[in-house]
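Sequence in, structure out. Go.
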Amino acid sequence: MGKSKAEIQRAYRQRLKEKNNERERMRRNYVPSSELSDRDKKRRNEQNRAKLRRFYQRKREERQRQVEPQEQDTSGYDSAPNDSSERSRLRLRIPFQNNRRKGALIRWKRELSEATSRIRLLEQERSKLLKRYKSTQRSLQRMKNKSKKSTSKSRINSTKADRTRNADGKLILQSEAKN
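Output:
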């Protein structure tokens, strides 16, 4: 008897968990190449190259499997069985470019455009903040100037109030007049 869908799902989750645990273990135990000896570096590089070769081989095989059914397919237009020489089966081949070689370039361009757009946004934000900073600075300066003017006016008014003229027309301070 086969497994139920729940059992299949449970087994799948268990496999994923084991796979993630393996990845975590490798990540935890990773040693930077600068700390490895030359012999260990060479061994690790060979292992990585072998893994990469297997990966590319698998991708090539998948692509080949996808291309094979398309090659057998025709356009659907068949010539009549009694037509022999001039008309034959119409086979249409469209040359599709292999974009695999452009993959790194495309990725690089995408990352570059993301970076430039982020820079542009940060520059816009910086200009807004700079504008706000300058306006705040100007308003503070206006407030300081206003307070300076008001204090100088009050000093002038207070000094005028403190001065009086005597009979000779000379100015005397009220503090002197009281004495």
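Check: The first helix runs from residue 5 to 28. The chain has four helices and two strands.
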